[in-house]
Design goal:
By secondary structure, the protein is an alpha+beta fold. It has 2 domains: about 110 residues, Aminotransferase class 4, branched-chain amino acid transferase, N-terminal domain (D-amino Acid Aminotransferase, Chain A, domain 1), CATH 3.30.470.10; about 160 residues, D-amino Acid Aminotransferase, subunit A, domain 2 (D-amino Acid Aminotransferase, Chain A, domain 2), CATH 3.20.10.10. It has 7 helices and 16 strands. The termini are far apart.
Length: about 300
């Protein structure tokens, strides 16, 4: 497979208020965000020219920056408009959208109160995260790394640094022949995969971990709304690793993963079934609707 580096592509990227040629969107090696992970980002998807739940993503981006101690110098309206502008400028209607905000070069130390806050937005085509065969179910290994306590890390923020252990866990899982990894939290409870929330099915009810040390994902909340519309019970609770053998279906939910069934977690096997497939189809239908229609359904 030939990889196209992300710094050598055609197109434009929105950077601090203006569109710039893709290859010119560069920052200095001594940027604080690179050395100290003082960066927050969002992962969004556009379908038919509409960015799904855009304002929810924008609000989370702004709040993530505030949790890390900085204010993004653009309003929610401006960020929404910039995302749409970048999508249109690149001639895309179905795409992945990546806003990212970070501390600049003015200071390079633990204390960096005087750094300028930057914001950039890029878009690119990105098909299914787990490939065309994902509806057959993916395989998860068990991660050695755990999601940290909210007293240890800013777990309510979509902060760049929190994904380091996700990358390490996914790489190890892939080396062992899995598609991804299931991460437990600091208490040994089920948390999420390396980049998506998890749902588990028992006796027709959806069970999902309480998001008290990892993100309460926007796709996660969307799936919960879809399930309630179908009168499917949704149980949000701590889930112990010892319970994994007691569920009949499992699936992941995230912007990149969308709704993806799971057929294996470590030594445990599952059969992607009616609930997983129904919610996956419902999600596929929902994302094609207008923002006004989506707002009514997920309210």
């Amino acid at each position: 497979m030939t990889l196209v580096p992300f710094d050598d592509r055609d197109g434009t990227i929105w950077w601090d208020g203006a569109l710039v040629p893709w290859r010119d969107a560069k920052l200095h090696v001594l940027s604080h965000g690179l050395h100290y992970a003082s960066a927050v980002f969002e992962g969004e998807r556009a379908y038919n020219g509409n960015i799904f739940r855009l304002r929810d993503h924008t609000n989370r981006l702004i709040n993530s920056g505030r949790i890390l101690g900085f204010e993004i110098p653009f309003s929610a309206d401006q960020i929404d408009a910039a995302c749409k502008q970048t999508l249109a400028a690149n001639g895309l209607t179905d795409a992945y959208v990546r806003p990212i905000a970070w501390r600049g070069t003015e200071q390079l130390a633990v204390s960096a109160q005087l750094t300028k806050i930057h914001l950039a937005i890029a878009v690119w085509p990105w098909p299914s995260y787990f490939g065309a065969e994902r509806m057959k179910g993916i395989r998860l290994g068990m991660a050695e790394w755990q999601r940290p306590s909210p007293k240890t890390a800013p777990t309510a923020s979509k902060a760049a640094g929190l994904y380091m252990i996700g990358t390490m866990s996914k790489h190890k899982a892939e080396a062992e022949g899995f598609d991804d990894a299931l991460m437990l939290d600091y208490r040994g409870q089920v948390a999420e995969s390396t980049g998506a929330n998890i749902f588990l099915v028992r006796d027709g009810a959806l069970h999902t971990p309480t998001p008290d040390c990892f993100l309460d994902g926007i796709t996660r909340r969307t799936v919960m709304s879809l399930a309630k519309h179908r009168q499917m019970p949704v149980v949000e609770r701590p889930i112990m690793a010892e319970e994994l053998s007691s569920f009949s279906e499992v699936f992941l939910a995230g912007t990149a993963a969308e709704v993806t069934p799971v057929r294996q977690i470590g030594a445990f096997s599952y059969t992607p079934g009616q609930i997983s497939h129904t919610l996956a189809r419902d999600y596929e239908v929902l994302v094609q609707k207008s923002p006004a229609e989506v707002a009514i359904i997920v309210a």
